[in-house]
Amino acid sequence: GSRTACRGYDRRMSQTLAGKTIAILATDGVERVELQGPRDALRDAGAEIRLVSLEPGSIKTFDHLDQAGNEQVDETVADADPAAFDGLLIPGGVANGDLLRDNEDAVRFVTAFAESKRPIAAICHAPWILIEAGIVKDRTVTSWPSLRTDLENAGAEWVDEEVVVDQGLVTSRKPDDIPAFSAKAIEEFAEGAHEDAPKPDPAD
User: Fold this and answer.
1) How does DSSP assign 74-117, residue by residue?
2) Is residue 134 within 8 Å of residue 200, measured between CB atoms?
3) Of residues 6, 64, 125, 194, which has the active-site annotation?
4) pLDDT at residue number 170
5) What 8-state DSSP symbol labels residue 186?
6) Sign of CA dihedral 97, 101, 104, 106
7) Secondary structure percentages of the chain, helix, strand, coil, to 5
8) Is 125 a catalytic site residue?
9) Nearest alpha-carbon partner for 120 in 54, 192, 202, 19
């Protein structure tokens, strides 16, 4: 049945990201499935994953508005070296997205990936921090629908699709999009830096 097919697919994909280290940037209020689903897919593809957050310790994950559990933080964003990572994945969650975009170290961390043209994957409310980092202008993106106006005001072209890839920037809308989001993130992380990707253009 389909389980075997899935396992076969995983085996074929198994070493796509071998030797690569991916940062997942998240804090309290992160949408649990948007952290765990892509993380498991990246691990299955051979990547080493490090959870980077605002504070040491652990973060609270949520299923919509209900607290779901905790995830151990590997390093703080203030201490993390963006150059140590091959790609960046940012899960959603309203509080997570809002707290991240309001943190200078987090914004700096995201900007560093864009400046070095390394791939970034952001889902749901995560594109908020892409706006702060000045990397959505003239890019085609998607997000949770409520971010559409913010993204358009920042110069992005917003589309309603399950996953959008624009020169190493991968965006998706919601938990239903996770399989497509994870697959495209793996592809982009495997390809590495996009020399033709635009440089960040901070609003200020």
Assistant:
1) -EETTT--GGG-SEEEE---HHHHHHHHT-HHHHHHHHHHHHTT
2) yes
3) 125
4) 98
5) H
6) positive
7) 40, 25, 35
8) yes
9) 192
**What does the block give as tokens for 181?**
């989001």
For 120, counting Cβ atoms within 10 Å of its Cβ (0-12 exposed, 13-18 middle, 19+ buried), the class is buried
User: How many Å apart are CA 176 and CA 123, to the nearest integer?
Assistant: 11
pLDDT of res. 7: 43
Q: Is 194 a catalytic residue?
A: no
Catalytic residue among 6, 64, 124, 194: 124
Distance CA 36, CA 54 (A): 18
Residue 184, token pair as written in the block: 């495209």
Asked if 45 and 15 touch (Cβ cutoff 8 Å), the reply is yes
The pair of structure tokens assigned to 177 is 């999009």
Say if pTM beats, i.e. exceeds, 0.90: yes
Residue 67 host element (H or E): strand 66-72
- pLDDT at position 94 over 80: yes
Residues 115-157: tens digit of each pLDDT: 999 999 999 999 999 999 999 999 999 999 999 999 999 999 9
